Structure formats: structure tokens, C-alpha cells
Amino acid sequence: MKLPGIVLLVLIAITHNQLWAQQNPPPPGKGVSDEELKRANDPMANVKAFNVQDYIVSKLYGLPDQQLNQLLVRYTQPVGQFLLRGTMPFVTSSGDGKDPTSGLGDFNFFALYSFPSSNGNKFGIGPNLTVPTGTHELGAGKWQTGLSVLAFFANSHIVQVGSLLQWSVSFAGDDDRADVSLLTPQLFFIWQIGAGFCIRSTGVMSFNLKNGDYNVPIGLGVGKVLKAGNVVFNLFAEPQFTVLAEGIGQPRYQTFVGFNTQF
């Protein structure tokens, strides 16, 4: 999917959400509460969620003509003390004078056990699984499994912080493809600035434990939380700049945009 298509998708999503909000206005005195604002940015929220998110990578190290787009379709479902999340990427790679290549990336799933908490802080741990669904070599070509650890600190109504740490290692798949041992820490920083707006930073670091490649981005963006009936929407755009990197093909600059829907 080319950049104009992604922009059009986001505009359609925003328009759809605004029309929904107009047709389903909240009752008087029941706008977005402080708790709903926190929950809208909480990766461990105990609610069903459907998210469409997009990484638009406009510059890569060592590949000046290459561009990459990764559209993530993500669903989250709480089941008892477990939080289940599945993510399907749709990837487009273009550059070097060639026609863009589009297809599926590798499907990722994790199941986190959420430890009971009464103070707003949350902690979860559980296994993850990556299925080699990638087409046109847009995935790793390997079955992978590992561990996911997630923490989110939300005592404050103003600032929330947290981290998602995932480690995956390959155990089967295409013998002609490189083995995988990947560590991806993600840090969350959310600053509620009023009227449903927040300043956000949610860059995902990547460390290839097989060949030593790594990427450390810093993000700075803005989000807006809206509510229609019992549905909460979170729209955001977050430019991310790489501050440390090693290896050809690592993102130098990317923009993370999307909308999250919580039911």
C-alpha cells in the first residue's frame, strides 16, 4: 500500500469516527472520563479492542531509495486473567526503481497473564508465537516463540508510563532463511494535556541477537481520545527518529499513525 493510500485510510477512519461520534453523542455530563483517557492508552486495558496502526518508514540506513510501509491490524481480547492479542501486518516495500511489493507479514500472537492489582499499576507475562505467514519474503520465514513482559504504571491521571518487552527465537521454518533471535523493548510515555489530547512517545527498539544489528527510535507525537456511546476511540500520529542504529535496512525516520477502538 503506497503512502497516499495510507493517508486516505487514516482520513476515512477519522471521518468515520467523527460521524459515529455525531450520531452517538454521550449523555450530558458523561464525556471521556479520566479513567477512560488512561485506559485508551493502556496496552493492558481489560477491554476488547480493535486497532489499525501504520508504520510509514520513509528513510532506511544503507538503502536511500527504499521505503517501507507496515500496516498492523490488531485485535485484543481479555479472557479471565489473560490478555490475548493478535497482530497481522500488511507490508509494502518499494524503491531501487522496482515496482512496489505488497503482501502479508508474519502473524504475531501473545497471551499475557495479568497479575491482580488495585493501585492502577499493572504487570503481565506470558508466551508469544510468530507464524510465518509472510508472502514475497516480507516475513522472516520462520516459526518463532518466546516471552512477552508488559508493565503499565497509571497511578497518575496526568502521566502514564510503561514498557512492553518481547523476545522471540526461531525453532522451525525455511532452512534457507536466517535464524531469528530478536529482542524488542517498547517504552510508553503518555502525558495527558487536557480536552482528550495527549503527548505520546511509544518507539519500539529492536535488537537482533544473531547478527548484532539494532535500532533505537525516539518518538514524539500527539493523540486525541473521543467517545461515542460506550465506544472509545484513540487517534494519534507520532513521528519517530532513530538515535542509535547498526545494520543496513534499519529505519532512520518513520511515522507511526493509527486509530484504536475500545469496546
What does this structure look like?
The chain is globular, with a radius of gyration of 19 Å. A hairpin with a 2-residue loop joins strand 9 (181-194) and strand 10 (197-201). The chain has helices spanning 3-23, 34-40; strands spanning 49-60, 67-79, 82-95, 98-104, 107-114, 122-131, 142-153, 159-173, 181-194, 197-201, 206-208, 214-219, 221-228, 231-246, 251-262. It has one domain (3-262): monomeric porin ompg (Porin). It has a 15-stranded antiparallel sheet that branches. The protein is mostly beta strands and 263 residues long.
Structure at a glance:
This is Neuromedin U. Residues 1-21 form the signal peptide. The protein has 263 residues and is mainly beta.
Spans with pLDDT under 50 lasting ≥5 residues?
1-18, 24-29
Structural class: mainly beta
Work out the number of β strands: 15
- According to CATH, the fold-level topology is Porin
Helix content: 10-25%
> Which strand-content bin applies to the residues?
over 45%
Q: Could you give the order of the helices and strands?
A: HHEEEEEEEEEEEEEEE
State Rg: 19 Å
Shape: globular
Question: What composes the largest sheet?
Answer: 15 strands, antiparallel
CATH superfamily: monomeric porin ompg
Average residue pLDDT: 88
For the record, the CATH class is: Mainly Beta
Protein name: Neuromedin U
Keywords: Signal
Signal peptide: 1-21
